[in-house]
Specification:
By secondary structure, the chain is α+β, with helices and mostly antiparallel strands. The protein has three domains: about 5-180, Formiminotransferase-cyclodeaminase, Chain B, domain 1, CATH 3.30.990; about 185-280, Alpha-Beta Plaits (2-Layer Sandwich), CATH 3.30.70; about 325-510, Four Helix Bundle (Hemerythrin (Met), subunit A). It has 15 helices and eleven strands. Strands 1, 2, 3, 4, 5, 6 and 7 form a seven-stranded mixed sheet that branches. Strands 9-10-8-11 form a four-stranded antiparallel sheet, with helices on one face. The radius of gyration is 26 Å and the shape is globular.
Length: about 500
């Protein structure tokens, strides 16, 4: 599956298994959606589902499960330890593969609008989708629970919902919809029933209290187990890993004479996060994430025996390029080269920095700092890969549009305008390809000295592919500009082309 988005909706129900089964059924009823996990907690009185798929079916599943929750959960009778404002409390979209954060923002707005209009539930956008900075944090929306939110909606115009009515739904409350990076829900349980202890520790370790960065925490009572819990969200596990959060809570609990009973992960967790924890607690020396059996097996199988789906899609594209048709042509191939360049960079970044030395050559930065640099580069390369992938089709469609304009009768008065528009669109696509490939090349140059020696040659191949994408894009641009009769437009393109050419010269000068 080339485009993959994750949705992790949270519901205010953790005690009625039949209701949770109905929510699961609503998700599974949508074709093309894959349920990965389901969790329910009695004390939190909360259920969490995790499902993935292509954007369109995931959005449909998100709407249908919110509809189901609105009909099954009555917030007026709900009592639980976890903060909430709605039956379907929060619905985040997370980019996984082939989609960008901007894509997820669009998905969040689309499903939020539909929830508001069709289900008459007020919707607030949060995290990356929030149009209002003061509502970006989920805690801000949940402050005071349903009653606090209802009061703000009634008295403060700044708290008008992004979609839907200006009052809470009688039974379903409100729903918070957004787009965010992956996070880890992680809880540490303490051998005491004193909730004040958990709340004090949570206040100390969370980032808003001056504690660990990228960590949100609250104290929750677990009356069914006669324990309390520090419930946490790690919004960037690379910066604040699981083991760091655990140790911080353990130290604070020890100072208060309280023992840690255990900890738990809610939902799914990236394998890399557990590898970090194992390195810390086992004191592993020179540990390489590719030493994980499943990771190594997946890598080898992918290289030596490509899945039939991948093999078929590659063969199909090669046949399409080989066909006696003008599209897909050089522009699409250039975009593919750029996407492959970015993909190689993502792979190298994910394998982490070289561990052969404490500091890479000529650098004063630590390996940990380089790991952070690689993570930042990885995220941008993922975005570039998705955009260049989209340009494979976009370039072909743009050229098809130009051909249709040329096919208009020469006596048709709309023909000159249609050709001018077609030329502009057909030139914009390879120009975007060249610009994005240029940025990908710069990132590849940046990460080359940081990655493991075993993948340095892969990064070099990525650079070569990026250069091919840049030069291929420029070639298509020049071909189109020869036919462009608009001097102003040609001049506009000329300045952008010159900037890309200059970056290409600088890039080659570094080799």
């Amino acid at each position: 599956m080339e485009r993959l988005v994750e949705c992790v909706p949270n519901f205010s129900e953790g005690r009625n298994a039949e209701t949770v089964r109905a929510l699961v059924a609503a998700v599974r009823a949508v074709k093309g959606v894959y349920l990965l996990d389901e969790e329910m907690d009695y004390d939190h009185h909360r259920a969490v589902l995790t499902f993935v798929g292509a954007p369109e079916p995931v959005v449909e599943a998100a709407f249908q499960v919110v509809r189901a929750a609105a009909g099954l959960i009555d917030l007026r009778t709900h009592q639980g330890g976890h903060p909430r404002v709605g039956a379907a409390d929060v619905v985040p979209f997370v980019p996984i593969r082939g989609v960008t954060m901007d894509d997820c923002v669009t998905l969040a707005k689309g499903v939020g609008k539909r929830i508001g209009s069709e289900l008459c539930i007020p919707v607030f956008l949060y995290e990356r989708a929030a149009p209002h900075p003061d509502r970006a944090n989920l805690e801000s929306v949940r402050r005071g629970g349903p009653e606090g939110l209802a009061y703000r909606m009634e008295t403060d115009p700044a708290w008008t919902p992004d979609f839907g009515p200006r009052t809470l739904h009688p039974t379903a409350g409100a729903t918070v919809v957004g787009a965010r990076p992956p996070l880890i829900a992680y809880n540490v349980n303490l051998r005491t029933d004193d909730l004040a202890v958990a709340k004090a520790i949570a206040k100390t370790v969370r980032s808003s209290g001056g504690g660990l960065p990228f960590l949100k925490a609250i104290g929750v009572a677990l009356p069914s187990r006669r324990l309390v819990q520090v419930s946490m969200n790690l919004t960037n596990f690379e910066e604040t890993p699981i083991h760091t959060a655990f140790e911080a809570v353990r130290r604070e609990a020890e100072q208060r004479g309280v023992e840690v009973v255990g900890s738990e992960v809610i939902g799914l967790v990236p394998q890399r996060a557990l590898a970090h924890a194992s390195e810390f607690f086992l004191k592993l020396e020179r540990f390489d994430p590719t030493q994980v059996l499943e990771t190594r097996l997946e890598t080898v199988l992918a290289r030596e025996a490509p899945p039939a789906e991948l093999d078929a899609s590659v063969a199909g594209f090669l046949e399409a390029v080989s066909a006696e048709t003008p599209t897909p042509g050089g522009g699409s191939v250039a975009a593919l080269a750029g996407a492959l360049a970015a993909a190689l960079g993502v792979m190298a970044c994910r394998l982490g920095p070289s561990s052969d030395q404490k500091k890479p050559p000529g650098s004063a930065a630590t390996v940990a700092e380089h790991a952070a640099d690689l993570k930042t580069s990885e995220q941008r390369l993922i975005e570039l890969r998705a955009k260049l992938h989209a340009l494979i089709r976009k370039d072909a469609e743009a050229y098809e549009g130009l051909l249709q304009a040329y096919r208009l009768p020469k006596t048709d008065p709309s023909r000159p305008g249609a050709i001018a528009t077609g030329l502009r669109v057909a030139t914009e696509a390879p120009l975007e390809t060249a610009a994005l490939a240029s940025e990908a090349a710069s990132l590849l140059r940046r990460v080359m000295p940081l990655v493991k020696p075993a993948v340095a040659s892969d990064v070099k191949v990525g650079l070569l592919m990026a250069v091919a994408a840049i030069e291929g894009g420029l070639e298509n641009i020049q071909a189109n500009l020869k036919s462009q009769q608009n001097p102003q437009l040609a001049s506009e393109f000329a300045s952008r082309i010159q900037a890309i050419k200059q970056s290409l010269v600088e890039l080659k000068g570094l080799w």
